[in-house]
Fold these 3 entries.
Entry 1:
Amino acid sequence: MIIPENKTTFNAEDTCQVLGNNTVLLIGDSTMQQFFTTLVHLLINCHTQLVFEHSDTLVGRAYGRMNRGKKWADCVRQHKPDIVIVTVGAHIYTDDDDSFMGIVHEVLYDMQHMQQESNSSLKFAWKTQSPGGCTKDIQFPTNPVEAAQKFNFSDKSYYKDVYNWWQFYNRDLLLLSTLQEFDITSIDMRMLYSRSDAHPSSQSGREIMKGVIDS
């Protein structure tokens, strides 16, 4: 979300004013779709300037989970937006971080090339992953580091069926560090770890998911 200069809180009308005639393309998995839906409801006066494209892995290759949607670069060429926001993670289902960071670097290099082609008019941002799961706690610590530790997805064998939630936080730290190196804007969603219902879902009927997801 855009917080205009000299403002400390989000205001939908001010945000639409700052956005002007620019269009925003959001690309990612179902968590990005939820983010997009939230923005559309908040920015009612300019919601038609927001577009979502589904891309589970951004690069169009399977990493152990679903690989729905187009390659992120194809989405950009199709829609020709002014601002692009991407995210990736839940479908990058590997035990190490190499595949995840390989995708991050691949996309970032493509972003650099696109900026050169568009004479730097195209702007990019990368959203960190929305935390997965929910807990029985009503309130979580306001400090996201402390809150993330409370999720404590330590039993990896149990969480193997829930989209590698236990890897999200550390991978976000790797991502944020890399974005600084490439001078790409980050949309840091780690404050959501302070909510115990971080990831809404409709899959509560699955036995493995009981007690760890929203219904």
Entry 2:
Amino acid sequence: MGDKLSVEFPRFKQIELEDRALIQDMLWKYQPQTSELTFTNLFIWRAHYGVIWSLYKDLLLLVFDGNAHGTYGLPPIGAPPRQEATRLLLHWLEEKGGDEPRIERADQRLAAELAGVTDLVAEPTRDDFDYVYSCQDLVRLAGRKYHAKRNFINTFQSIYQFSYETLNQNHISACLELAAKWCRLHRCDEDLNLTGEWMAIREALTNFGALQLQGGVIRLARGIEAFTLGELLNSKTAVVHIEKANPAIRGIYAVMNQQFCEHNWEHATFVNREQDLGLLPLRQAKLSYHPHHLVEKFRIRLSGNS
């Protein structure tokens, strides 16, 4: 990574692969609950969000510096107290100009630390809440509430001969081709968010080994028709970063979801499948899997700003 002094606040640097050891170590010690806080997530979305980082004392500071959603910070990562670092980051963003200075995707731990701090306000942002499921629920799909999911899988299995394979380097080119086809179908080049996702998928697949990701693919007779990528978020929870499949094959997403949990996350208690971004169809899809709980996230701002 180089000299730590070169990234001491107020200096920031763009996130690079060589930063992984230091940043992932700091994130893992924090044992995050929110899906944003893995090195992989920050790295693969770095171009879309303009991810930069800095160190302040023993804390990691992260900023999304200029993107379609504006410039804002992520919560300071490390042991409390964090009031000083939160305030410092917000004032730095204020001096930078532009949008209202704010920290997004803050977790309940930071919100609780800031309770009663008069110059800082924490507000829940429902569209950012993560959906967390019991791994065993997603594997077994037992009971009436999962009847529709079992039907999808049973129908798929009655039509197709398939195999699940743990993703490795030999699958990368086929997965990139599948993602490219998905993008052409959905006209990613006409949507900045889909363009950003396509860039993130390419980064994740291209750097699959270096990022130490886990993944799986669904293979049918004609080739790979679905893939997924994830990793451990904390000691009990896996997080699924990417899931793509041929949308013409009914039930394949349900099969991918179930198989990934069964084969890759047998030792995890939970799986975090990230947020719905306020998109109603995505919210309905995530709720249809009956989450064990939602991870709350908060926007933090200076109380003088509204």
Entry 3:
Amino acid sequence: MSLSQDPIFPVLQKYVVCGYHDITGEPWAGMSGRHDRNGQAVPTTNGAGPHNIQMFLLSPDGVVLTCLPGYWAPQDLLTEVRFAAQLDQVWKNNSLSRSQKEQVFKQMHMAHAQEHPRGMVARSHLQGFDALYEAEKPNSDFIKDPKYMAANASGSWGSTGETAKHPPMSAFKTTDVVMHERMAKRPFEAFSHFDVAQYSDYGKWKYDKEEDARMADGSVDHEKLKMIGTIGDPESEKAHKHNANQAQTSSGWGNRGWGSQSQ
């Protein structure tokens, strides 16, 4: 997890008051594979899994300075934390009117999107399945040029045959750019009024790297994957709970486990 790694971890420790909110059951919460906190981790890209996690950077009075949807690499999260500190100074500036603050907010977000380090941009491309999903969505703000939408409408993308063509990554904006474009439309909004569902709406609703079911050679143990289940899927949650109860009963936990009155 990026939060516990350098270079962002010491900054969060010293300068940021951290908290979390479980979004299970929220209308914008997607589905993901169950991941044990001691399980394996695999690399991914900035902005992957936007329905599963959103990282808000707020002012002390609860105003949204920026929000990072999905996973972000620790060095890139640090870039955005530093940027949020600059926005916080604008918000605290009593010499500016509210409308002036909002204008500065918009300008700073749009400018910052063009100032990201090259490595950050490279780490911010859409996952292939998310790119295809956005290509098939009408009026996606990830599409750089309308001509790509026309190509999609012709049916050249998304087929399963050997001649299937997938949209080139050059057809899409990167997640770091879209994040700032979307934030620029939400200048200094209160967290309580922030439309998380709309803001984080891109890519597929299920994001699963299957970390805890991967074997040493990188292949996936599909039987184990079934046992792990999917968070956010009611049927999978039900099956997972059933399997867990069976495991407890067979091991004796169900009879003399925690909470039992037996001695």
